Fold:
Amino acid sequence: MNQDITEMTAAELSRALHRRELSSSDAAAAYLGRMTQTESTIHAYITPTARRALEAASAADEMLKNSGAPALCGIPYAAKDNLAVEGVRMTCASKMLADFVPDYTAAVVERADSAGCVLLGKTNMDEFAMGSSTERSIAGPTHNPLDPACSAGGSSGGSAAAVAAREAVWAIGSDTGGSARQPASFCGLVSLKPTYGLVSRRGMTELASSLDCVCPITRDVTDCALAMNLLAGRDPGDMTTFDSDEDYTLALTGGVSGMTFGIPRPEMLDECESSVRRAMNRAARILETLGARVTEVDLPLEMALEIYMVVAAAEASSNLARFDGLRYGLTAEGATAADRMRATRSAGFGDEVKRRILTGAYALSSTYGGGYYRKIKAAQATVCRETDTALDTVDAVLLPTASGVAFRLGSYADNPTALYRSDCFTTVANLTGIPALQIPGGGDGHLPVGLSLMGKKRAEKTLFRAAFALESEMKPFVGKEVGRDAVGYAKPC
Amino acid sequence: METNDVQGRGEVGEKLVSAAMLRVDGPAAAEISGDFAKIRARIDRVVQSPIADGEPTKGPIHTADYTVKLPEEAGQARADQPREGYNPLLRQAAKYEAPYAAVPRVVGDAE
Amino acid sequence: MPSDMRSLAERYEAVIGLEVHVELKTGRKIFCSCRARFGDTPNSCVCPTCLGMPGALPVLSDEAVALAVKAGLALGCRINRRSWFDRKNYYYPDLPKGYQITQLERPVCEGGAVPIETSAGKRSIPLIRIHMEEDAAKLIHRGAETLVDYNRAGVPLIEIVSEPAMRTPEEAKAYLNSLRRILSYMGVSDCRMNEGSLRCDVNISVRRRGDTDLGIKCEIKNVNSVNYVGRALEEEILRQTALLEAGEEIRPETRRFNEDTGKTEKMRDKEGAVDYRYFTEPNLPPIVLTDEWMDAVARSMPPMPDEAAHALTSEFGVKPDNAVLLTASVRLTDYFTRCARATSYPAVCESLFVGEVLERLDRDDPAEYISPDALASICALMGEGRIVSGQAKRLVHLAAESGEDPEVIAGRESMLKISDEETLAPLVEAAIAASEKAAADYRRGKVAAIRQILGTLMRASGGRADPIVAERMLAERLNNGK
Structure:
């Protein structure tokens, strides 16, 4: 092969593996080798699992001897460190779980394992997935492979950086308010936040249970469809999941002719960097050129962001109550049980986690909040209705994923809550449970800009179809503007 | 008048930190308490907005109803056999006195 | 009761409401498949879900819902066809997740009533609601440490909340006994207070008779026998009445009943109580009960225990007291019914079953001690007058233990009645000879003295002599010998 294995997309590598032109062991070795070169700069992983990877690769090579091996069999991937893998440390980037080893495995990793996927390691993240920069981690920050001085985004920054730095073919992240789409945007990658319930959350450390989604982060739209074929479907162990047996790769072609796309009114983009507005305008023109209709729609983005912040904090304050130092994880000294809990939680959680726990406790409190929670829930229902109404008139909505390109690491150190605003285009999807697909949409010279397609619940196929059409048309622009030859083919460092 | 201070000066802040089983002190306390005031203002903005006047969803928001199954079609796994001795999960407890997990003295009664 | 107390009782009345937690008899936990059974080795039935490990999710047991609905149907509740779960957040070492999954906003059952009978007659105690929830772990306090057994964490519970509609400790006890009888008969729960499968919190306030407003209430937590509930209430009524009479205020408190002193003690103030920060549980979908499901659950329910008892009385003439004993569980009622149907002598069957068989059974889950056919043949021996009652009782156990035909045993062991005069004649002679004074009394006209001589004869025969024949022979012999 002339092409470096680590430059291949999952679809390309899959073809090579199934034709036995390459072995999974070759691929695993190439990726582990790549990790040794780049990890010191990028720091995408918290816990590499080299031995497990080599074992899985040789098992995959056995599977590949038979016809009918799954599409992603033998392909190396990475998983965010909030996904449990039996026998592998799961830190959630927190001091609280620095030494925690689960004896159970997340549903998505089970699926990947049984399909013969090769887990390279557990990726870096913001502590308990609270953050948008992957700076708040016990393992230190992850650096953007396209510019190591910049953030890879967050909280799934490690997963995105691993894929962009060619330290994994694809990766699993999680998205509670944009945590997979924004890093994919910052790193020039594709990520789907699926409809709530399409992918099992079992074994994923919960942040906000009603908003959390497990998401693939991939090099292109085709890989994303392949990954969704693997991840999607009902899990009896997660009662919020539903049946799905779609082949998303069949939804890619077909084009957008005759479809209608919503775009936000121009003033909604006032806060965006010019590269973002440019990318939006260009994508809208491309859609029209391809025969689609583009129309302005109103989405309750502002309110969604505010409500999101409260719901996410409320559920997080409850989900993180289990970390009390009594059964597992960090244990601090205390003369009484309550003392131990308090000491453990004070020592084990970082400031951002504490801030959100307090916000959540406040919102839920009947004493101080005075029925806030019911009001917030009512407001959320209103946002859902308004979003449904907006989506009724269109096939999908096109939005920026983030208001700008990757920011420099440390930019928000003095003003942590300002970073919450960076979720302003993404949280509406989590709050309303709808799918959102991030694709690269351009660049500002060296860093990529991300665009998102959002649709009604269970409209993934529509999004894939539109994303694939856009991706095909935009690849040359994106490559040129980010200084790369094609989407997702990062040539970093 | 309530205060948003969680530094320990205000009763609300103190109770909140206590209810969340936390201690917040040092430089972080000032930072968090400052942010907290902003956050509260944002919560208020939602709560006082007309969009919060409607009816909340009855039950969890994104989850389809579950139709409870008849015993014969539930097909649920029968009770697991207990594992021998104690469960290895509990070995991670800071103090383990098989077959019990030991915690420091419990003071006061919850519930 | 001293007279000053009596006058207090005339001026004050208690208002009592009970919150009863009942463990559902599903055999497994409500949100995972771990076994749930009393007496397992501590911490042997645990998994990531019931230990609250990160990422572990709950999966609802359909069977737990069915039992909760059975409880609701048995108590005449409205069943909510759509209900959901909420989270109750508080920190305590018995709560692995830091929250309990329960039902606050929309419980599975609302309304309903528990029928009770006291010295004042029959009445119904209305219920507010029945909701499902998970049990917490069990804490064992030991000096400076507390030991935790997570086997109990996640055991399915229903909480049955009554209206504050009871007025006396007697009513509260009758309520608990009635609830236990109904729920155990329906197979909803073992309802064993000593094993913790039924636990009771008592809410009690006292007010002047005629007042319509409720007084300040205290809650007595976790009283673990029906008698203790009665005693705790009596104590608490006295304490609160005395305070009111002295012009003092009742403070809202959580109290406990000290079984050693028989007094209630303060645990903590209720004011400034824990804020549970409830919200909708996001990990469990709303649960929906279809007509078909409701029908199937209703069809699978036995009649109410009172109806079953009434049926025993009307079909077999069982005495009302015995009918209650025989309707402790469906399996017990079935067993007795099979025995009673196998015999033409149901009254004999009732007396042997209640007197001899019942004590050998686990009333909640009886194994067959003696086969209905074997018991029937003993009933026949007795009904036909071929065996005396004492021997019949012995024969029940011999037949039960050996499995042999009772007639064969009775013949071999010489247990049948002695009725022929030839065999009885020497016994008659010997009894009269041994009872000179009684014989003389009889002959002087004190006819009752013959009972004493008959007693001597019966003892000498090992209880087997037919008392009617023997008495006639004694009389003839004594009259002839005059």
Observations:
- Chain A touches chain B through 66 residues (CB under 8 Å).
- The longest strand of chain A covers residues 436-443.
